[in-house]
């Protein structure tokens, strides 16, 4: 009998994933502000949280 031969690749292609969660990492260098989770997750309207963030960072 002859040895079995396969035309399947030995390893999966390491290209871009076609499904699942894709994380895109971008370094922010300008035009952004870091605020605490306590402020960002506070109950209230978006306007109230936005005004508070403006006051804290201003």
Plain-language structure description:
With about 60 residues, the chain is mainly alpha-helical. The chain is about 30% helix and about 0% strand. The protein has helices at about 35-40, 45-55. The longest helix is centred in the last third of the chain and has 12 residues, at about 45-55. The protein is rod-shaped. The relative contact order is 0.11. The mean pLDDT is about 75.
Element layout with pairings:
Layout: H1 37-40, H2 46-57
Work out the number of β strands: 0
Quick check: average pLDDT? 77
Q: How many strands, what sense, and barrel or not for the largest sheet? A: none
Helix content: 25-40%
Terminal Cα span: 80 Å
Helix count from the secondary structure assignment: 2
| Global outline | rod-shaped
Strand content: under 5%
Taking all Cα atoms into account, the compactness measure Rg is 25 Å
One letter per element, helices H and strands E, the order comes to HH
Poorly predicted runs are none
Instruction: Assign the structural class, choosing from mainly alpha, mainly beta, alpha/beta, alpha+beta, or little secondary structure.
Output: mainly alpha
- How would you name the oligomeric state of the polypeptide chains in this document? single chain
Which characteristics define this entry?
mainly alpha, 0% strand
How is this structure best summarized?
Helix content is 28%, strand content 0%. With 58 residues, the protein is mostly helical.
